[in-house]
Write a structure and sequence with these properties.
About 55% of the residues lie in helices and about 10% in strands. The protein has a 5-stranded mixed β-sheet with strand order 5-4-3-6-7, with helices on both faces. About 5% of the residues have low confidence. It is elongated, with a radius of gyration of 30 Å. The chain is of the alpha/beta class. A hairpin with a 5-residue loop joins strand 4 and strand 5.
Length: about 400
């Protein structure tokens, strides 16, 4: 039915109703006439607006516009949509209350639009022709799906060949041997959580936040992420709370190790810089380690640059905040693995380490390195083994690179 036909039917109905009211108000009308008028009104077809078929947004954007709007390539996004549509988190019923089912595309694109900008929920809902409550449901479904697939997207290598490949890549960058991954942390600013002690979430920059700990390979792909602890907790304690801490002996076999900054405890599975030593061997070691730490710093910058909501999350519950953050980390990995970089990512990838950087990754060194905590006998033994290992690698690096 065309718009002209609909308008004509509406005008005809209005004329009939006006005539019926005039007859009913007339003193000459009788019961039989009234009955006829009522029958006419009952039979009168009531026109109700029909739901418009939702159009696909995927093809309505040019490629560059799509990447600017949704923070990834169309090809990468299509894979995510297809995966989500097959997941148990996408509702399979055809309709709900007569309203057409929101497509998997609508779910994923609305989530990406929200995550990739500082646009408020009402604006995103309006853009996708859905209510705010519907957007919250859709956002939750996509978020749960991304958290569900996280173990197969964010993971350590499964076999020794993969581990050796990562270590070889790190050694090509800096000459530092045996590196399975580099660890670091960053603050995720949040609103004051409901039913929580606000002061425990205030970091040393006097901002309310949680800590995101990440371990990356040389390409900036997350091998492990852990988030949720209040940012008042120092990084070494967050590291001990994380699941990876207990798994390190299993993961770091064959003389492999993680590397971190001064905030992390030295052990045979975690190598950190020398503190307070100015001999050339130590300086050479620290320079190589510092160069190997760049991938995790760049990954945090890429993550926050692509998903701008992470500049400050406004969720009421910490659980929702952590799930949203993990979901963004999963999307980060999917993009990196698909060689999907934004134009502004180039500056981050090519930037060099700045010793005066003010982000949490480097700014927390002086703040937390001077806060020791008691070690168990097992941790003390591991630290002693780490000192021996660090000295050995430091000497090897000096022989290979320091004298030239």
């Amino acid at each position: 039915m065309t718009e002209t036909d609909t308008k004509s039917d509406t005008d005809d109905r209005k004329r009939k109703l006006a005539l019926a009211l005039a007859i009913l108000e007339s003193s000459e009308s009788n019961d039989s006439t009234d009955d006829e008028i009522l029958q006419m009104l009952i039979k009168e077809r009531v026109l109700r607006p029909k739901h418009k078929k939702r159009q696909s947004l995927m093809e309505s954007y040019a490629e560059e516009d799509f990447r600017r709007e949704f923070r990834m390539k169309r090809e990468t996004c299509s894979k995510i949509i297809n995966d989500f549509e097959k997941s148990p988190f996408y509702p399979k019923n055809d309709s709900h209350g007569g309203t057409p089912k929101s497509s998997a595309e609508n779910h994923v694109l609305s989530f990406l639009k929200f995550a990739g900008s500082k646009t408020c929920i009402s604006e995103v809902a309006s853009q996708f022709c859905i209510g705010e409550s519907t957007f919250h449901r859709q956002c939750g479904r996509v978020m749960h799906h991304l958290n569900d697939i996280a173990p197969r997207i964010i993971r350590f290598p499964k076999d020794n060949e993969e581990k050796k490949a990562i270590a070889h890549h790190f050694e090509q960058i800096s000459g530092f041997p045996g590196v399975l991954g580099c660890i670091g942390s960053t603050y995720i600013p949040i609103r004051a959580p409901a039913n929580k002690n606000k002061s425990s979430y205030v970091n040393h920059q006097q901002k309310i936040s949680i800590t995101l700990q990440g371990i990356c390979d040389a390409n900036g792909v997350f091998l492990d992420v852990f988030t949720g602890p209040p940012s008042k907790i120092q990084d070494a304690r967050v590291y001990k709370l994380s699941f990876v801490y207990q798994r390190l002996p299993e993961l770091c076999s064959d003389d492999l190790h993680l590397i971190g900054d001064e905030t992390y405890p030295l052990s045979d599975h975690m190598l950190v810089p020398y503190m307070g030593q100015n001999d050339q061997t130590s300086i050479n070691y620290n320079s190589a380690l510092q160069l190997s730490l760049q991938p995790v710093e760049k990954s945090f910058r890429l993550l926050k640059q692509r998903f701008k909501q992470l500049s400050r999350l406004d969720f009421h519950q910490v659980d929702t905040t952590t799930k949203f953050t993990i979901a963004c980390c999963v999307l980060h990995n999917l993009c990196i693995l698909d060689n999907d970089f934004l134009l502004e990512d180039v500056d981050v990838q090519t930037c060099q380490y700045d010793g005066n950087a003010t982000n949490h990754f480097f700014d927390n060194l002086c703040f937390e390195a001077s806060e020791p905590f008691e070690l168990t006998s097992e941790e003390l033994q591991s630290k002693q083994m780490g000192e021996i290992k660090r000295d050995r690698i430091s000497a090897e690096l000096w022989v290979k690179y320091g004298k030239s």
